[in-house]
Amino acid sequence: MELKKVSYPEPDEYYNKELISQSNAGVATICGTVFLKKGTRIPETGFSKHPFNEISIIIEGCIEMLSEEGHPIGKLEKGNAVYINAGEAQAGNVLEDTKIIYVLNQSQ
Q1: What gap in Å lies between CA 69 and CA 66, rounded to an integer?
Q2: Contact 76, 102 (CB under 8 A)
Q3: For the residues 94-108, what does the mean pLDDT come to?
Q4: Does CATH number 3.40.50.1000 belong to domain 25-107?
């Protein structure tokens, strides 16, 4: 068992804070937190894709998610959870200061 206190990056730090990273039975799992500043876009340009399946829980704030054409497709708000498949394009406009807890997993 590994126990960590949940903490978030400070507004002037890098936006992502990894809390736990483990590999077990052929599965890599990472858990962390994110702080996103109102008025920013994630990523700054284009779209991000990563090899992990992702579950994120919006603890506070709001992000307007974008389609690959750049059109709004919905909002992630406080209390929402979202699942994103590995390799799925993602980007968004941060409408409010936002805190997220995420879990990433990938078969090795």
Answers
A1: 8
A2: no
A3: 95
A4: no
Quick one: 48 exposed, middle or buried, by C-beta within 10 A (0-12, 13-18, 19+)? exposed
pTM for the full predicted model: 0.89
CA angle 62/68/72 to nearest 5° reads 35
Q: 29-40: per-residue pLDDT in tens?
A: 999 999 999 999
Residue with tokens 């126990």: 3
Tokens of 46: 């284009």
What pLDDT is stored for residue 81 in this prediction? 97
Q: Tell me the β-bridge partners of 103.
A: 31, 55
DSSP states of 52-78:
SEEEEEEEEEEEEEE-TTS-EEEEEET
Show me where the domains of the chain are located. 25-107
The residue type found at 31 is: C
